[in-house]
Design brief:
alpha/beta, 6-stranded mixed β-sheet, 14 helices, 18% strand
Amino acid sequence: MKLLSFALATALAALPMGNAMAETPIKMAVETPPGDPLNLMLTTFRDTLTESGGFTPDFYESGALGDEAALTELLRAGQIDVVPLGSDVVELDSKFAVFDLPFLFDDKATARAALDGALGEKLAASLRETTGLQVLAFGELGFRAISNSVRPIETPADLAGLKLRTPGSQTRIMAFTALGAAPTPMPLGEVYVALRQGVIDGQENPLSVVQEFSFDEVQEFVSLTNHVYTPITLAMAGSAWDALSPEEQAAVTAAAKAGAEATRVKSDESDASLVAEFEAAGMKVNTPDLAAFKEAAAPLRAEFAAIVGEEFLTEVEGSLK
């Protein structure tokens, strides 16, 4: 009897202990703190995936594992499974530089439709081929504004000499240089102190980022230039994606789409409310002469075509008409 009991106990110990033993670990990280759109996309992805069952998220935020450049390297090395990428995705695949071409998109609806359609498919295929990363979904940082502590930006001439923080994207730097500013690449987490100390004059980001990083505390002017639209690319290491079952891939994709939708809702809410909030806090908000900016930026089109490819850029432009 004792022998039988021991054999039964041994057999039971060898069996999987419910779903806990079957859950797939998934490591994810983001540079930004809670409330920021990149963080929102990843936390929504995490929570939705957890609710679906079968996954155990390992989550890091607020730059605990490094800034976006560092996280990108960890992602490519397979040491992190999922990272939401902002402007710096262009450093991985030059086709994403299309989002740094000023005034390509007229409105959010056009940009969203393009990312959910043929443009998104082409970019996802290109990123997988170029880097091995799998695009799970495209979320939204949104249209970018310029804040600074020197003067309102009414025309391109007002950018002359302004030290503006930009992401590390060489094409964003190229665009602002052409418009007369002095672009200064800097990790996002360092911008607040640099603005407060006068190391830089201003920065460019969606209004929601201005709020979440409290740039409104150290800036006097916000100019609604809407110069570029920035998506969030939720990317997964290709090896991690390929190791998932079809059912797991479906769950991951659904969670990514939920994250993307959350960022688009936040973007709309922020754009609808933050101008009034900034003005109430004492900031001066203006809408510049965009026709003059578009005219000044027009010569950049040829330079961007050389980077992303004339055929690709023509296709993108044609799909937006």
